[in-house]
Amino acid sequence: MPDPAEPAAAQLGRLIDIMAALRTPGTGCPWDLVQTFATIAPYTIEEAYEVADAIDRGHMSDLKEELGDLLLQVVYHARMAEEQKAFAFADVAAAVAEKMVRRHPHVFGTPEQRAAGAPKGFWEKAKAEEKQARGAAQDTDAAPPAPERLLDAVPVGFPALTRAVKLQGKAAKVGFDWPSLTPVFAKMKEELAELEDVIAKGDHANIEEEYGDLLFVLANVARHLDIDPEASLRAANQKFVRRFHHIENRLAQRGSSPAQSNLDEMDALWNEAKDRERSEPKA
């Protein structure tokens, strides 16, 4: 157990040294030595989700562990980049520290900037200026890159619902948006009707497309309500697990199991779980 008084930098330095040892040819870990950015990326995404899960559950011990696992991912990628002489962990930390200072003049700037506070839209303006500066710093002898279109800035690797909200938000900034929820709900009903139609026709080639269109509109509903659809779905998943556990527990009390029961019996226990949750005081 580390000494709480020991500087965080010392523990971080130890973690960086451990990763370097794991990646040292001849003496390192055979599994770690063969990993690449591409093979580690799925673990990075998984660890971010596990952090979110620990937060949802309000479990601080698990959150500490999952944050450590996520930090390891950053150290891992930085070590592989250092081996390629591209950058090191210190460069990653320095770059984000400088970015945070640059994007918060109302905290770290001049007395006048701090007094003025953060004007609306400042964050987006700062990001745009940084992107322009990066473009200007590129090799002038190189062929000019293709102009980036508005939606190109939304990473493809985002979870689909999150990316849908981001894409819609980008389009909304230039006026491509419905003014209220009413037309969004109308579109949702339209897409649901189209899905029902292709299902009724047995048009299997278009069912997946229409289902995707419906999900895209539902993401737009979430955006207009200013809620995170991924968080909403995670909560719905947790609720399903909780209520199904109730079904399993109640059936076990009767000496039975879901496999030995019919839908009517399980549905009654589902409603029992729902009624119990509604009667419990909210935290």
What do these coordinates show?
The chain is mainly alpha-helical. Helix content is 70%, strand content 0%. Helix 9 packs across helix 11. The chain is extended and about 65 Å long. It starts with 7 loop residues before the first helix and ends with a helix.
Key terms for this structure?
mainly alpha, Helix Hairpins, 13 helices, 283 residues, 3 domains, single chain, extended
The sequence of SSEs as H and E is: HHHHHHHHHHHHH
So, the CATH homologous superfamily of the largest domain? MazG-like
**Number of separate domains:** 3
Radius of gyration: 25 Å
Rounded average pLDDT: 90
- Largest sheet, described in full? none
| Residue share in β-strands | under 5%
Determine and state the CATH class of the largest domain. Mainly Alpha
Low-confidence stretches: none
Helix content: over 70%
CATH-defined topology of the largest domain:
Helix Hairpins
Going by CATH, the architecture of the largest domain would be Orthogonal Bundle
Broad structural category:
mainly alpha
Strands, count: 0
Distance between the termini: 34 Å
Number of helices, where a helix is a run of at least 4 consecutive DSSP H or I residues: 13
Basic shape: extended
Short description:
The chain has 283 residues and is mainly alpha-helical. It has helices at 8-22, 30-33, 37-57, 60-83, 89-102, 105-108, 111-116, 122-136, 160-172, 181-200, 204-224, 229-253, 263-279. It folds into 3 domains: 8-102, Orthogonal Bundle (Helix Hairpins), CATH 1.10.287; 160-227, Orthogonal Bundle (Helix Hairpins); 230-279.
